[in-house]
Amino acid sequence: MLQTTAATKPIPAPLLPPMGPGLVLRVLSKRARAAPVELPGPLTSSFTLPAIDSAHVARYSATLGFAPGAVPLTWWYLPVQRAHMATMLGDAFPYRLAGIVHVENELVAHAAPPANTPIRIDTRIDVLPATSSGAVYCALETVGSAGGERIFTCTSKYLAVRGGRFGKPRRETAPAQPGAAIDSWTLPPSSGRAYARVSGDWNPIHLTRWSARLLGLPAPIIHGMHSVARSCAAIEAAAQRRVSAMSVRFTAPVPLGSTVTLTSGSAPGRYALFCGEALAAEGAYTLD
């Protein structure tokens, strides 16, 4: 949490904790409070990313299909995820983390990061009122800045508590229709582990069949932000321009071994990702 002196000068934020198997184990072992209470206000945290590791950015870019050079937009989610996990592991966050579902995300690049400069990452978490079915969502707003200048923002939404079957019936909507194909790729069984090596996200549901089954899934699924990154890279390659903003709404998991197809969406600047005939994700993007 941001602290100040009597002269209101910000105290340097602690270093961003690493994302890896150790942090994942802590996430899997955290339990919900017996009776979560309404939070008095938003949870906030501040961390420092000492510098951007250009070698790591290069590995990430090569793994996801980005052209070498600048920091890809979706790379910023990696330090953001570390900040999110560290914040939600605190005692003030009342919900169990194993099984929390990432349902929406938006990344926006505001400025190129200065070389060899620490980046401050500030996060605010709001627990939203329960829906009519009892589902509870958390909204997270994260800002990365350097020297007082905003570098990127990330808006995320997580499902913390699944709702029951009561409440208003869901309105029927027409199934999404694929537009013009932009790209297609097949996810080999090792793709979850390959992404874990560059992201640090070693959640067992993404790794192997046996580890996914330990957490109740019949088969491993690819990381949602892997799908977003692959889509972002493919859009950039097709447009020959960089993506400066990208949103996503995840609608269905993508099992390892699947073939996914990226298509144009229902309007210019929109995209859709299909796994077979099922819509897996959709969103919008802005080109530089």
TrEMBL record:
InterPro entries: Fatty_acid_synthase, HotDog_dom_sf, MaoC-like_dom. This is MaoC/PaaZ C-terminal domain-containing protein. Residues 177-262 form the MaoC-like domain.
